[in-house]
Write a structure and sequence with these properties.
Elements lengths: L9 H23 L9 E5 L2 H6 L16 H8 L3 E5 L7 H5 L4 H11 L19
Length: 132
Amino acid sequence: MKQKLKTKSSMEAELVAVDDAMGRVLWTRHFLAPQGHPVSTTTIYNDNRSTAENGKSSSSKKTQHINVRYFFVADKIKKDELEVAFCPMTNMLADFFTKPLQGSTFKRMRRIILNISETDKSSAEHRSVLEN
C-alpha cells in the first residue's frame, strides 16, 4: 500500500509500514482471542536490518525525528505483543506480489507459494496459458 507520509530513510519508511500494519495486526489478535485462539507474539518480518534492530529502541540520533506515534511499535515490542524480525530480501515472500522477479528467484518463490516440492518433476515446469 502506498504510504501517506514522506520519510527520510528506508529505515524510517519500514518503521512507518510496520506502524501502518499495526491496526490490522491488533484487530486480528483481539478477534482471535475471544474465539479461543490467543496469539502470544506476532512477528512482522522486515528486510531492513536497521528497522529490525532500531524498532526495539528507536531513539538514536538518526531516528529521533520520527514522530512519536511510531513509538507505538516499540511499546508493543516491550509488551511482547509484537516482534520485528529481520528477513533477508532473498527470502521475503511479499516481494513475489510487489516486485517483478525474474529467473530462478521467481521460480523459487512460486514453488514456495504454490507448495510445490523441488523433487516434484510433474509440476516443476508450469506451462503458460498463452502458449499454443
